[in-house]
């Protein structure tokens, strides 16, 4: 039977018997995964299609919660859509505010040390509320929740690899359709001949230089001011669009000629809309995967420039 060692015992084993120490680390990892599986498969949790269907028949409504980040919420939507399609039950989505955000290294985030605040939730709701598979979306206060979509953070799912859009499906067993669009908005026709770009401070590929975009006349940037000021050093003529909410952002992306972005919130919208899109892939964390028509990603400069040229010259 596995027994977890204390700090002194671990250090002693590490320095006296490296083979047994490696075996202990392997067994510890297995125990953590087993504990996570037991936590998820708890009889009281709605963590299988059969349980969810039975509950939906009985209650007629499924109440979900999510605490962010904003992009993670967008990537949860295809699973929510599949859940609605599977049960035909009323779907209510509640956003939890103020949950702590842990950043690694020198990374920064526009919201500082929380994943979702009131202003961000308000901006998100404008985009989420019109989606046909969500009957209600609002801020969580004291509502009872049937499925907590944050369970993927409990430690059993590796969050730095795979595809964020599958995290919630791993918890529920409800498989999303990722090659089709899961966001519906009207395009903004004012951007029909425009390249729209976003680049967050996190998840950058530092081998890439966007200076070549200076030869393309119509480029706008959507993102926070610090990100815009950074990209403007490389592309002086790029324009900044400050959006009022994320419905407006989605309409701009939908109406654009094509979208370029790294693994950030605006790209999650582009992915949900299935517009022509190019993903700057980070070498450090690869957990965003373009799926379906017109989705492209790259690691290297030459490939980026080729993709931009191809999409820009598309008739």
Task: Describe what this molecule looks like in 3D.
It is built from 10 helices and 10 strands. The chain folds into 2 domains: 49-172; 189-312, 3-Layer(aba) Sandwich (Rossmann fold), CATH 3.40.50. It is α/β, with parallel strands linked by helices. The mean pLDDT is 90. Helix 4 links the parallel strand 1 and strand 2 (90-95). Helix 8 (246-255) packs across helix 9. The strands form 2 sheets. It has a 6-stranded parallel sheet with strand order 7-6-5-8-9-10, sandwiched between helices. The longest helix has 23 residues, at 18-40.
Please provide a brief summary of the model.
This protein has 315 residues and is α/β, with parallel strands linked by helices.
């Amino acid at each position: 039977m596995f027994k977890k060692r204390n700090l002194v015992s671990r250090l002693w084993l590490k320095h006296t018997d490296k083979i047994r120490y490696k075996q202990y680390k392997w067994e510890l990892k297995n125990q953590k995964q087993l504990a996570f599986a037991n936590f998820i498969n708890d009889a009281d949790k709605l963590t299988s299609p059969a349980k969810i269907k039975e509950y939906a028949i009985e209650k007629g409504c499924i109440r979900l919660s999510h605490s962010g980040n904003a992009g993670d919420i967008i990537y949860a939507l295809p699973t929510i859509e599949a859940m609605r399609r599977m049960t035909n039950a009323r779907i209510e989505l509640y956003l939890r505010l103020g949950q702590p955000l842990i950043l690694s290294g020198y990374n920064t985030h526009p919201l500082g040390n929380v994943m979702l605040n009131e202003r961000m939730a308000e901006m998100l709701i404008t985009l989420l509320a019109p989606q046909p598979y969500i009957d209600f979306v609002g801020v969580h206060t004291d509502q009872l929740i049937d499925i907590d979509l944050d369970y993927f953070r409990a430690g059993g799912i590796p969050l730095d690899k795979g595809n964020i859009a599958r995290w919630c499906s791993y918890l529920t067993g409800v498989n999303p359709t990722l090659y089709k669009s899961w966001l519906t908005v009207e395009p903004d026709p004012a951007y029909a001949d425009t390249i729209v770009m976003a680049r967050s401070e996190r998840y950058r590929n530092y081998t890439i230089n966007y200076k070549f975009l200076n030869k393309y006349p119509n480029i706008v940037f959507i993102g926070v001011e610090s990100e815009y000021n950074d990209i403007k050093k490389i592309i002086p003529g790029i324009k900044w669009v400050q959006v009022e909410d994320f419905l407006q952002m989605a309409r701009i992306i939908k109406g654009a000629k094509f979208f370029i972005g790294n693994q950030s919130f605006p790209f999650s919208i582009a992915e949900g809309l299935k517009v022509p899109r190019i993903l700057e892939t980070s070498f450090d964390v690869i957990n965003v995967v373009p799926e379906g028509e017109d989705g492209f990603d790259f690691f290297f400069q030459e490939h980026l420039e080729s993709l931009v040229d191809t999409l820009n010259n598309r008739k």
